[in-house]
Amino acid sequence: MAVPMQVVLSQAMLGLNNGAFYALLSLGLAVIFGMLNVVNFAHGAFYMLGAFGALIGYEYLGNWMGQEGWHLSFWAALVVVPVVIGLIGVIIEKTMLSRLYKVDHLYGLLLTFGLALIFEGVFTNYFNVDGEPYNGKPEMLEGAANLGFMLFPKYRLFSIVLSLVVCFGVWWLVERTRLGSYLRAGTENPDVARAFGIDVPLLRTLTYFLGIALAALAGVVAAPIYSVSPTMGADLIIIVFAVVVIGGMGSIMGAIVSGLALGLIEGVVKVFYPPLANTVVFILMAVVLLWRPAGLFGRE
After folding, report:
1. Does residue 203 lie within any of the structural domains?
2. Torsion, CA 164, CA 30, CA 251, CA 18, rounded to 10
3. Digit-coded pLDDT (tens) for 64-94
4. What share of the chain is helix, strand, coil (3-state, %, to 5)?
5. Is residue 144 part of a domain?
6. Residue 255 near residue 24 (C-beta atoms within 8 A)
7. Is 48 a member of any domain?
8. What is the CB neighbour count within 10 angstroms for residue 284?
9. Rounded to an integer, what distance in angstroms lies between the CA atom of residue 71 and that of residue 185?
10. Phi, psi of 228 (to 5 degrees)
11. CB 49 within 8 A of CB 115
12. 175 contacts 252 by C-beta, under 8 angstroms
C-alpha cells in the first residue's frame, strides 16, 4: 500500500525534532571527548539536570525564596540553567577529572558513570520517577505553524531552529576562531601549547564547561516536550553515544550531521516499519563501524 508523501514529510519533521536533540547532546559529548579524551558517561545526567533546573526554577524556586508566585521564566532558564549546571561541571572537572587525564580512559568513564548514578539516585528520592510536566512554555510558542504539508507545533519548530543555531555556532567557535585554535592546540599538544604561554588547565576547564552547558541547554529545551524525570538522561544516553560513534568520536561536525540524519531516518522508518525505528540507529552504527571504524567524520 502506497504511503502518502504528506505522511512521510510529517514523520520526517518529527524525526528532525528528535534529531535536533541528538545533535545538541552529541555535540557536547563530542566536544568533551575530542578536547579532553574523556568518555563522559554522566552526559545524560547533566541533560536531566538541565530539565530539572528549568522545572525547579519555574515551579519551586519562588516559594523557596519566599517570593510566592515568582517564576524563573523559560527564556531566563535558557541562559541561567546551562551556566549553573556548567559551573557544577567545572567543580567536578577541577576536583575529580583533572586527576585522571594522564591515566587510562576507562577511569574517566567509570567516574562519570558513578556520578550519573548518584545524580539519578538523588533526584529519584525527591521527584516522581514517572516524571513531572513543565508548565512554563511561553505563550508565543503555543499552537501550530502551517508548513503547507502539515500543522507543526510552534515550540517543536523553535527547538529545531535553536538547536541548529547553537550547534553550528559551537562548530564555528571551535573550528574558525582563535579561541578554538587554542582549545585544539591545548588538546593535541599540551606541552607545545604551554611553551607558547597557553593556560592548558584553564582551556580544559572551559571545554568541560561548554560540553556540560550544551547538555543542560538540551535539557531545558526538552522540558516542555518530554516529561521531566530522573531517568530521562539514562533513556537517551545510549542513543547519543551511538550517534557520536557514527559521526566519529570527537568530531563536532560528525556529531551534528549524524544526530540530524539519524533523527530523520528514525522518523521515516516509523512510516514504513515502526518496529525497526528503535533499533535502526544501532544497525547503522554496526554498519559504519564495519565499513569505517573511525566513524563518518572521524580520523583514523
Report:
1. yes
2. -40
3. 565 666 788 999 999 999 999 999 999 999 9
4. 75, 5, 25
5. yes
6. no
7. yes
8. 18
9. 42
10. -85, 115
11. no
12. yes
